Amino acid sequence: MKAAIITAGSELTDGRVLDTNTAFLARRLDSLGVKVVLTLSVPDDRELIVAAINFALGEKPGLVVITGGLGPTEDDLTAPAVAAALDLKLELSGQAEEYVRAAVGASGELPPHQAKQAMMPPGSSVIRPAGTAPGFIVNAGGGRVVALPGVPWELRAMWEDAVSDPRVSRLLSAARPPARGRLSFYGVAEAEIGAAVGKIMGRNGAGLDVSICSRRGEVMLEVTADSKDEGRVQELVKTLKQNFSDFVFSEGEEIENVVAARLTGMGATLAVGESCTGGMLGEAITRVPGASAFFLGGVTAYSNDVKRNLLKVRQETLDNVGAVSEPVAQQLALGARSLTGSDYGAGITGVAGPGGGTAEKPVGLVFICVSSDAGDVVRRFDFPGGRGQVRQSAVTAALHMLHWKIIADP
Amino acid sequence: MKAAIITAGSELTDGRVLDTNTAFLARRLDSLGVKVVLTLSVPDDRELIVAAINFALGEKPGLVVITGGLGPTEDDLTAPAVAAALDLKLELSGQAEEYVRAAVGASGELPPHQAKQAMMPPGSSVIRPAGTAPGFIVNAGGGRVVALPGVPWELRAMWEDAVSDPRVSRLLSAARPPARGRLSFYGVAEAEIGAAVGKIMGRNGAGLDVSICSRRGEVMLEVTADSKDEGRVQELVKTLKQNFSDFVFSEGEEIENVVAARLTGMGATLAVGESCTGGMLGEAITRVPGASAFFLGGVTAYSNDVKRNLLKVRQETLDNVGAVSEPVAQQLALGARSLTGSDYGAGITGVAGPGGGTAEKPVGLVFICVSSDAGDVVRRFDFPGGRGQVRQSAVTAALHMLHWKIIADP
User: Fold this and answer.
1) Whole-angstrom Cα distance, residue A71 to residue B51?
2) Which position among A208, B3, B267, B403 has the lowest Cβ density within 10 Å, counted as fewest Cβ atoms?
3) Does the CB of A106 have a partner CB in chain B at under 8 Å?
4) Which of A40, A279, A291 sits opposite B39 (nearest CB)?
């Protein structure tokens, strides 16, 4: 079964807001065995929304999920656009009106901008609002158009209701999840993995669909095939795992989850000392639910005073080699450990840019240390890209160094 | 002038990777006065990429920018898809071959997977690779198709070359940035602003295009119009600013930039004490280039031991009211200030979920304190959504509380 996702909102197409709804929906649909063949974003423009819906319907998807444009303001145009695309006329839904009234705590007649939120394509199933905007499901040919609000938490809260609505769940019951294997690599180039895949698959690759992409030093591979080819998918994954055993870190899980599982499993604890990343390593680690089982905390030592006073970075070191240096990375990691009593420590110091770079210490230069009783490992990195990219790459590298150290430690 | 953006990659349509290229390109095009009317993502599937290009070209855009699918692996299909959509046949580009050879440090013949990266639609301008994949620009009707790699830092590095290529820059010189006003609000509902806009514009709103959206408690408004209507745009913005003076925090700038500018301007310093956000507040603040002018650092006190030992949270308080409480938020903020000697401090403690919630202290309960010599302010929040949403909302709220306090302080 195929699906298309449409997100409506001028704030998306002019870049003011990063669209996270598409990825959320794509993951959910993917896990239900539905292949997303197309995602679109369009401004708050009725004609463009209609054009997007029509283009999506042209791919004959089982589901078209559209988010955004269900709010109370003039630029919220999704319901009329869906109606226009399906050649229907909006009508007041008693159910939707009741939902909106309950959501805004109104007893009498709704003000016009809220009454508008109760106008639905005829024959819609109405989805109870998490905020104030109800969603709806309407038939479109053999498929369904599902319209949900664009506010991320509202969308997430209402998604389960949408897929358990009988109109959608009946369709989904026919979806057959494909055979699938995933591998995530760090420290090896995309091209090298691609070449190896080509070689391994040789003339026996028909029916296996391999997707490879890289992201801040990590390479992600996914192989999918018809469910009858499960064995061949697993065989390919197994062979790649053997050939790249030093570089494979998971079967699709994020590195922070891998590190979290290791530390939790060992009953070991972690603390961090961050400079240029400003708290981003701690943030990544604590994204993992249950991080309190192993993460004690950390110190963000942005100023040299904080480095000295809290993490006991030595003035002499700062004077001799500067804050962005191998020994300071080590002292940050050791300081974090000794302050918190953690088993593992990580320290990051670098030049994130855009300012602060010199010929000797350019933007992108980062030193990272991971420390445990078994010893300390410090590495130097020269990351490409701007401030955001350098910081993200440093956090990713620190997590991988931690992972390697945890595995290598006796 | 109109534009469309296409991002190719199965990792985008199955939700493994969040697409940030679209928002980057949208912002850049928007700043050049180009209206993005459509963005699409498609899997690594030649037919779907061709369909997306054709659909985009149907909107008669000046530019179609397509990212991804220029790599060396089998699933990199953008060049053949562009060629097919334009009814062209790929040919080897000497310039591209030279670029690839230089990028991979090859002297003789390129291996097939890299030679493939030098196959371009005939008549293309080749864009020098930042990594190993060259981009290209090819004419399509009266417009241009610009193909760039999907790796975010490579795309960013190559974008400037693409827009300064004569074929593109000549087109762009005809683009006329519209009249535009932006306002960002916190603490007021989208519907209330929408109603006010409707009232103010009354019958005089023709030609003004107002887009309103909300995001974790912030509401963003943008009004655009033909450049001749600059005066009317400014008038609307001015009136809204007066009517919502307690809630407007910027004309489009992010709250972390607003706080950073205030603190830098005053020569005041800031430190943070975080629990449930795990470093995310520090990360948000240090996203701002030059944050070292005011941000000293912080302590992430995830465990109660760290709260007690580093930030001097009192055992008695933890025993009596627990870690998620008003006094602990205050002690985190005060502890961060006294440890670092900062003028301002912020403390966050809460239940981010999914576990750890109780009837009395449910998931989403967060206490935030901002502190200065002028006194401390502590607020309780009950945020909706999951772990990520609660943490993000807490960081946003802390930044706004800081902003209010900085303004209110004598």
Assistant:
1) 31
2) B267
3) no
4) A40
Domains in chain A with CATH codes:
2-172 (3.40.980.10), 179-250 (3.30.70.2860), 255-408 (3.90.950.20)
Q: Is A214 on the interface with B (CB under 8 A)?
A: yes
| Chain B nearest C-alpha distance from A279 (Å) | 4
**Contact state of B152 with A305 under an 8 Å Cβ cutoff:** no
Distance separating alpha carbons of residues B359 and A192, to the nearest angstrom:
53
Cβ atoms of A356 and A366 closer than 8 Å: no
Q: Can you tell me the ipTM of this complex?
A: 0.87
The whole-number pLDDT of residue A284 equals 98
Q: Which residues of A touch B312 (CB under 8 A)?
A: none
pLDDT tens for B137-188 read 999 988 999 999 999 989 999 999 999 999 999 999 888 888 999 999 999 9
The per-residue pLDDT of chain B, averaged, comes to 94
Task: Show Cβ contacts of residue A375 under 8 Å, excluding neighbours closer than 6 positions.
Answer: none
Residues of A in contact with B190 (CB under 8 A): 71-73
Q: Is B150 exposed, middle or buried (0-12, 13-18, 19+ CB in 10 A)?
A: buried
Measured between CB atoms, does B218 come within 8 Å of chain A?
no
pLDDT of residue B281: 98
**A343-366 pLDDT tens trace:** 999 999 999 999 999 999 999 999
d(CA B337, CA B21): 39
For residue B355, report the phi and psi dihedrals to the nearest 5 degrees: -90, 180
The edge-to-edge listing of strands for the beta sheet with A375-382 is: A375-382, A365-372, A344-350, A270-274, A295-301, B295-301, B270-274, B344-350, B365-372, B375-382
Q: Do A15 and B38 touch (CB under 8 A)?
A: no
The whole-number pLDDT of residue B203 equals 66
Residues of A in Cβ contact (< 8 Å) with B19: 19, 22-23
Tokens for A404, please give them: 């390697």
**Tokens at residue A283, please?**
């943030």
At residue B357, φ and ψ (nearest 5 deg) are -80, 150
Closest-CA distance, B31 to chain A, in angstroms, reads: 9
CA distance, residue A207 to nearest chain B CA (Å): 14
Q: B19 vs A16: CB contact, 8 Å cut-off?
A: no
- The answer to whether A195 contacts chain B (CB < 8 Å) is yes
The answer to whether A299 faces chain B, any CB pair under 8 Å, is: yes
| Residue of B282, B270, B265 lying closest to B339 (CA atoms) | B270
Distance from CA of B205 to the nearest CA of A (A): 12
Cα–Cα dist B207/B91, whole Å: 47
C-alpha angle B259-B264-B268 in degrees, rounded to nearest 5: 90
| pLDDT under 70: residue ranges of chain A | 203
Q: Does the structure show a pLDDT above 80 at B205?
A: no
